[in-house]
Request: fold
Amino acid sequence: MVDKRLMQQLNKHRKQFAFLVGLGVTGGVLVVLQADYIAKIINGVFLENMGLASTEGWMGPLFMVMILRSAVLWCIEVAAHRLAAAIKMDIRQSLLQCIFNLGPIYASRQETGEMVNVFMEGIENLEPYFAKFLPQLFAAVLVPAVILAWVFPLDISTGVILLITAPLIPIFMILIGRMAESMNKKQWETLSRLSAHFLDVLQGLTILKIFGRSIEQIQVITRMSDEFRDTTLSVLKIAFLSALVLELVATISTALVAVTIGLKLLYFSEAQIIKLDRF
Reply:
């Protein structure tokens, strides 16, 4: 899901983010070109009985498109990690400045383990959001439009199938994302409590040993660890569910396109056989 507060962090890095989205769209266009050349080669070899010499005019451009796509993917990885690193640095500096402004009294009232968890693990977990999710989100809006614009002139029925089935993916992802949001919040709260309590135990380990309360704290940490394990497994279940839904919708869409094209090829073959029989 898109968070308005996190989106505000992109204000300082609009050019980098626009460049990253542009690379994603370019990669999508290259995928379409690659599929188009492969389809032409397969059609020429298997349906039109072309030889190697006849398909050389397509092999060269296909090879160039594959090289360009690999280069674009490499640039996306580098640009995404640089953008995420810059945003994480800005967030850490803002949080640190905020704590300095609030003063030592406020800081002393906060649990050290929870603050450390926020500064380290919490901010580090934002990298996939800025490096993967947001660029792919914008590319996912633009690339299907490019694919539909390419497919519709070639085959209207295939374009209609893609137009109907493609929106199912974001719809299901929104529904699953709402389920995952509450579980992620619960997981983060559990991790924060576990980190804060564990650090407090380490800091007061000497006193706990003196008063013979260390065994009790071990049991508490074990219970909190089990709770964190259960919440993490719940989040993983939702993650696997989202992957299953994506694969299912994509498979159904591909199957519908394959069946439609297969029936057209079958009808075309029968028509060609009937024409040859007449002659």
